[in-house]
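hey team, just a heads up i'm posting the complex here instead of the shared drive bc the drive is being weird again. everything in one block, sequence lines first with there labels, then the predicted structure for the whole assembly after. its two chains so it's a bit long, scroll down
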Amino acid sequence: MKRHCAAIRTLVVVMLAVLTCGIADAQQKASPFALPQGQQQNTSPVAAEPPGIMAQAWTWLLTQQSRMNRDMAGAVKDLKSGDPMRAAGLLILIAFLYGVLHAAGPGHGKAVISSYVLTNEETVRRGIALSFLSALFQAISAIVFVGIFAIILNRTSMQMRASEALLESFSWGFVALIGAVMLYRQLRSVFLRPARIPAVATHMHSHEHAHLPHDHDHAGGCDHHDHHHASTAHAPPAHDLHGVSPVHVHGPDCGCGHSHMPDPKDLQGAWSWRKALPLALSVGIRPCTGALLLLIFAMSQGMWWAGVLGTLAMALGTALTVSVLATLAVSSRDLAVRLSGEGSPWAWRIQTLAGFAGASLVFILGSAFFIASLNGGSPL
Amino acid sequence: MRNRLLGAVMALLLGVSALAPAAHAHPHVWITYETTVVYENGAVTGFEHVWTFDDMYTAMAIQGLDKNGDGVYTREELAELAEVNMQGLKDFDYFTFAKVGNADQKMASPKDAWLEHKNDILKLHFRLPLEKPVPADAKDFTFAVYDPSFFIAFEPEKTDPIKLAAGAPEGCKAFIVQPKTDQASDDLKAQLLNDSFAQELGQTTNIGVGFTPTVSVTCGKS
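-- predicted structure starts here --
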């Protein structure tokens, strides 16, 4: 499994790298540690060996990040002195790429959102919407943060760091809380419904249906063909975060023999704010360091609005990366369910496993980062 | 059926691995370092660092510190920040890792830390004494300046990054050893495997180590 994960990760890195490479020019591939020729006379002979592919990729990634940082600063300066249109375009482009690359690091909700959608029987669509929403919140948070603390209050970086640390603790604390609720719901849905598997198994013959992704609550409606709808034996919905909409409470005459196509409403994904907001806010409440740096730098150059522009572009990039990962999580879960056969006990087990894995991850990530945020000192 | 299940499990694994970090190392601060090796009585007693920060970090760091509003950030106005920086750096061993052979050499408390703001760029100056001086002719005396967690990207200054102070015995020299790349590549693979989850959980790892240039200080007679 480890090997497998590493392979996937490498693939994602290469994918991102290629993406960046395709848009930004990749002429400059020199090592960031390269020294002028005259200085290298004494280097040990091993350094002359051709670098391994991983080393090359790593070096390249570093060089790109370093360049991006410099170019972004350069673009802000050029807005003042150079060609403003070109500089603005460049700034937006680089900030976007920066967002794409940096979302891969911790703290951008990537793991949290992917885990969340894995658990909550979410659709790809919602995973993407959630990614964009939290990235937008994160951008707004950075802009408001700098607006209040740097522009209005003229606080020092040391004071701002303290406030940022507080927001970070809040953010992860809320994530942990959401994880705990998710775990509780998973446990409840499994242990309060022991009759679920047999019900599915015995009724399978008559309920072969095309079970396209749809987002109504599976436990409360007529899914899984528990024929006791009318007997008021309904277990509480397993996924309250879905904000079970009354539209989807299927009556006793739901007609379980029919081909269960999803409602058009479901495909369009009736967006539930109640469900999406807590997570997006939890993730987004903490401004990301990259955006803060850009905003304050732009401000120091008297180009505050350029920082806002760049921050929004950065958020777009971040949202893109997180969307890809969330989509990967949802699709692979759906694929797993399909491969094991719709409605089979194995499909149910996989759903449950995915649900527990996702909920546990949200909880573990949230609490681990929360604890880390309490005692984690910053070097500078 | 068995194939189906295998496929299902594989697909699920794929999903879980998507949650794992893709490329977690992303520096936010760039520092170019210029380090002088300090000698006293024929032994290395410590290091004198001059660290130059990048544009963005500079802007962030000095924000709000121009107390008299004259547009100049004096050494005095930056004194508090310098102190906070040194306090913070303490927990990270000042990102300076010296060794004799494989034995780590401890650092004493830094001295004379101050910040300089010139041409919109911030520089941190400080002296970092070794807890025990290392004899100038010690075999395999090396040091490296890097951030294991890679929040900060350290690079040696383009020209003359390492100097030997005036008291250095005759024949001593310092040179930068570039990382042995194939080793580095293996290291990185191992680290990606082992540390990715730890990193995601907020722990520091040694991601940057394999690619860090090391400074070797020798005093050969040859």
